[in-house]
Amino acid sequence: MNPTKPTDDARKGDVVSPTKDKGWFYTDTVKDHFFHPRNFMQDESAYGEAAMGMVGSPACGDAMKIWIKVDPATGRISDMKWKTFGCGSAIASTSMMSVMVTENGGMTLEDARKLRPQNIMERLGGLPARKVHCSVLGDKALRAAINDWYRRAGQHDNIEIEQGRVIDATLKITDKDIEEAVLDGADTLEKVQAKTKVGTGDPSCIPEVENLIRFYKEKYFGAE
Amino acid sequence: MRDIYLDNAATTALEPRVLDAMLPYFTERPANPSSFHSMGLRAKEAVAAARGTVAGILNSREDEVLFTSGGTESDNLAVVGIPRAYVAKGRHVITSAIEHPAVLEPLLHLQKKSEIELTVLPVDRFGMVDPAAVVAALRPETVFVSIMYANNEIGTIQPIAEIGKEILKWRKEHATPLPYFHSDACQASGACPLDVEKLHVDAMSVNGSKIYGPKGVGILYLRRGVALDPLVRGGGQERGIRAGTENVPGIVGLATALSLARQEMEKENARLIALRDRLIAGLLAIPKTRLNGHPTVRLPNNVNISFLDIEGEAAVLYLDAEGIYVSTGSACASTSLDPSHVILATGLSYEGAHGSLRFTLGKHTTADDIERVIAVMPGVVQKLRVMSPVNLDMKYFA
Question: Which 173-192 residues of chain B touch chain A by CB within 8 A?
Fold first, then answer.
C-alpha cells in the first residue's frame, strides 16, 4: 500500500510563520468541532452491545474510545460514538471522524478501514504540524472497533490484524506507521515521536524505532 | 466582556511609567554610550544611573551589575561561563531537577560535551530543594551550584539564603573559595527580596519582563572576584564580560521597572496572596484536583492546579473562548511530548501531570476576575470530563 501523503490543503491550517499567525492555531473547522463536538458518547448504557475499540493511555496524553453500530444487511456504519482524552486537535479529529464514517448513509466497514489520519486532517482544513500526532489515534481506534464488530458477529475471517509488525505495543504503533511518518518528512526520533508518539508510553521500543527510521530514510531518501 | 489575562509569568504588559522613561532613548538621545562626544556621554550616564539603581536594589557594587539581552542570556552566561573559568579547579556542577530550561539545557549540553560532571538534585513533593541535599552533594571538585529562586511553573520559592549560607560554611570548613553559587531569580524579581548579601549568592539572573518592564534586556549580578569565560566577545562592553552596544532604552526601562516593583512590592504581594489563595480554594473545590507546588511558600501570583481525567491544552482553549488566558506546561504546548519536567519532578504521575494548568496573576488582576474564573472553570472541566474516556483513581495524585 502506498501511504497517502498529505496534500497542500491538509497543511493550510498550519502556522507557517509568526507573521501569518492570525492568533489561533486551528482552522475554523477544527474550532467548530472542538467547541461543538459531534457524536460524543453521553450515555453508554445503550451501547453495551456495540462494537468498541480503544487506543492510547492517559499517561501518553491521548486516549480514545470508539463505539460503532453497523447495519448487518449493508455492512455500513450506522452510528459512531466516541470519547477522547487529549488536546483540542485530538477532540476535533475524533469528532470529524465520527461525521465522516456516518455521513451519506454510512461508510462500509471496508472503506472505514482505509481511513487514514491524512483524510481526517484534510477535512479539518489541516492541523499544525506539531499537532499531527494528536490525530493518529482515532483511525486506529476505529479499526479496533471494526475488528470487534466482526468478532461479535462471528465473522472471524474478516478480522484484520493491523498491517505491519507492532513495534510499540502500548500505543499499537507498527513499522508501517514509522514508514508513513518518515515519508511525511520526520527524519529524527523526535520528529517521528511528534507524529506518532511512539515510545512515549513504553520507551523500550525506542532503539528499534531508531533503526527503522534509519532504514526508511535510506530506502526513500538515500544514504546520508 | 473583560479579557482576563492570567499568564503574567509568561510575560507582563509594559508599565506606562517604564515606557515614559525609555522613550527618549529611542529618539531624542540615540547615541552609543561608547562614543567620546557629549551625546555619547549622556547615554553612558543613563546606563550608569540605571546600574546604580539596580546595585541599590541588589545591595551590590555597581561593577557587579552586568546588563545582558535577557534572563536566558544571564543564565547561560553564568552556568556556562563560570564552570568554564574554573575548569582547572574541578568539573563538578550541582543543580536541581526543576530549573528553567535556560539553566538546565546549557548544563546538559556541557555534560554531553564532557566539560562538566552534573548532579541534578531531586525536589520534594512541593518542588522544594533540601539545603542538606545540596551540602551532601558537594565535593572537593565542585566548582558551581545553580538553584533557582522561584519556579516559573509551580511558583515554589526555594530557601536560597539557607542554601547560600550552607555553601559559605562548607567553603570555610574546606578553606576554599569554591563552589560559587548562582540563582536564577527571573520569576522572583518582582516578589522576593533581591539583597545578594542576605541571599549569599555569587551570581544571580534577574530580568524585567515579568515585572512590567521591557523584554530583551536582563541582568547578571556577578560578585567581584568571580571569573567568567565570556560567551559574546567583541568591543569590551560590560567589563569585557558581555560585548555589544548597550541597549540603553532597555536598560533604563529595566531599572525603572525594578525600582517601581520594589516600591510596590509589599502592598502588591499582600493583595496578590489574597487573590491567589481565593483562586486556589475555588479551584480545589472542583472534584479530582490537586495543587502543584507549595501551599504557602510560593510566588504571590502563582496558581498551578492539576485536573484529573482531562488534558490541559483542551482546557486552555475552552477558557480562551471565555476570554480567560492561562497556560499549560503539558505535552501539546511544547515540542516535547512529555508533560512538565517540573511537575513530574514533584512525583506526580504522567496521568496527573497532563491535566495541569497555570494561572499567574498580575497587577491588573481584580477580585472580580478571580470570581469569574472560579465560576467558569467547573463547567469547562465538566465538559471535558464528559468527553473523556478516562476516569482515573485519585491514587494518581498520591
Answer: none
